[in-house]
Structure to design on (79 residues):
């Protein structure tokens, strides 16, 4: 089951954990602004899967331009 991430939730990241396909990550492209995506692998193809379904997957063809900054390890909702 794919978790949902809602506005107002607190997300905890760990920069020291290994990132595996299926993990949610903060990733930076070419030294620019970071983005929150799901890291996926289909066969030999690595992709970033957006949480918003109106956007398409981003195939990681220029992998050297991407840097995974943090792996999501926990989320918490406060009331």
């Amino acid at each position: 089951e794919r978790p949902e991430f809602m506005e107002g939730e607190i997300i905890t990241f760990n920069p020291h954990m290994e990132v595996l396909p299926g993990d949610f990550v903060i990733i930076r492209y070419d030294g620019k602004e970071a983005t929150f995506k799901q890291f996926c692998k289909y066969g030999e193809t690595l992709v970033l899967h957006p949480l918003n379904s109106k956007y398409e997957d981003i195939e990681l063809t220029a992998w050297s331009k991407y840097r995974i900054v943090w792996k999501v390890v926990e989320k918490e909702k406060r009331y």
Remarks:
- The first strand starts at residue 10 and ends at 14.
- Strands lie at 10-14, 24-29, 34-42, 45-50, 58-59, 66-76.
